[in-house]
Amino acid sequence: MAAEIISGKLISEEIRGNIAEEVQVLASKGFRPGLAVVLIGEDPASHVYVRNKEKACHDLGFYSEVHRLPETASQEEVLTLVNKLNSQDSIHGILVQLPLPKHIDEKAVLNAIAVEKDVDGFHPINVGNLVIGDDSLLPCTPAGVIKLIKRTGIEMSGKHAVVIGRSNIVGKPVSLLLQRENATVTMCHSKTANMAEIARMADILVVAIGRAKMIDASYVKPGAVVIDVGMNRLDNGKLAGDVDYDSAREVAGYITPVPGGVGPMTITMLMKNTLLASKRLNGLV
Ligand code: NAP
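A: This is the predicted complex of the input protein with NAP.
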């Protein structure tokens, strides 16, 4: 029997509905969560992502600012802008769209964002809090992955989760969040031997490698939950995940599609983080 589809689109809409309601309540008290996005250069994909974030802010009633800087912007200019946003009361979340032009030091820019406004969860202090299990703003895509698994109703505690990919923005934080849920986690990467064999032991398989359709049914344990984080543009212009959806869904119990799976959850978690940051900064939680 083909796997049940986990619709990130529908789950996302539901969560956004709850966020919009909360924003309305805050608005009636004269207060609006605010997100600032900094976009440097002309990367077409980044422009699309930023437009989507702008739209989400608009739809949910957030205040938003997008600062578009030219490719030639200096590091000093970017840091000056981040510092200004750090001290601006109407802004509760700051997101610097990655990747940055090569002449800008990404670490220096991310470290300059005030920890309490770091709604991407990439500041080393937020990363450190995630590692030691303290309260922090969680990185958006990994937090979205955990929400999607929870919505299957499958208990993560005691299950074997395999994460393929160990990037700082997806694989590593996902593995930490799965451990928080008491799953037993195995990490795979480009040097892993016998990866299909390891993946086939997973009750929960999370894939974030950036290789279109690489993970087919031979990597999937019958009945497993398969979460596909990959977003790859094919030559025909279509989007594809890292999982070979048609093949894997014949074996999996639950599976996310691409598009319409993890993607919409990432922006939704960003909005959730911004709402949370705004309430914290105003002493409302
Ligand atoms: P990344 O930084 O390039 O990391 C890729 C990881 O996959 C690395 O750890 C790499 O291993 C591993 N890997 C690469 N090829 C492999 C192979 N053949 N077998 C096993 N492991 C392999 O990528 P990322 O930023 O984590 O992104 C991964 C995918 O998720 C991309 O398609 C990206 O577009 C997508 N993504 C989607 C969202 C969303 O909102 N839906 C958000 C972020 C990323 P090594 O460490 O050994 O090199």
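The mean pLDDT is 97. The pocket of NAP is lined by residues 141, 164-167, 169-171, 188-191, 208-211, 229-232, 242, 262-263, 266 (CB under 6 Å).
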